[in-house]
Amino acid sequence: MKRILIVEDDPAIVLGLRDMLEAEHFEVLTAEHGETGLNMARENKIDLLILDLMLPGKNGEEICRELRSSGFSQPILVLSSKSQELDKVLLLEMGADDYVTKPFGVRELLARIHALLRRSFRPEQEADVIVFEHCTADLKKHQLRWPDGRVSELSAKEVRILGYFSEHEGEVVSRDALLDAVWGYDSYPSTRTVDNYILSLRKKIEPDPSHPRHIVTVHTVGYKFFLEAKT
Hints:
It contains eight helices and twelve strands. By secondary structure, the chain is an alpha/beta fold. The protein has two domains: 3-118, Response regulator (Rossmann fold), CATH 3.40.50; 123-225, Winged helix-like DNA-binding domain superfamily/Winged helix DNA-binding domain (Arc Repressor Mutant, subunit A). A hairpin with a 3-residue loop joins strand 11 and strand 12 (222-225). Helix 4 packs across helix 8. The relative contact order is 0.11.
């Protein structure tokens, strides 16, 4: 049975989510305080984290970043209120895999949960480390590391994109192929979603994101990935 942790401070939402998920035969853990939720995510073996952004004690962004920096590799689904201005790139940078806006529909939320669980990254199936000229991507720890000691976080989908690119280095990879490999067609993201993730990855791995040399656009088709910078 898959185990899902809900970190949300609204008791009504927690109750509704718990009932919905238990009806779908998930085991459910809950926390209403940020610090408690962070500790539960660290101490329990969970398959997915549902995380509210606005929490007492420690907010969702802090929890997300701390978990990713410690090697937490399970999918994170963020809950946000309609009034919050969400920067999608910021969500990716802090390590979230997907988000839904309150109020949300049950079918939409379940579809996103099932899609994340199906695509949950398995490190043993792909190379753990990708070494670039200027930095190293540790896919198991979801981190980029530089020789000067700097570290930045990679979201689970960024890890899967890099893993897929590394398996197809030098080949033309279409947006549709990435959607199928990373999201699955039945999760219904758009090709624009792929472009947003590529934009985020370029900001992290490219020395000059405005002139990418590792993830190169192939006009109207998709991308080519080069471990050694393409000149």
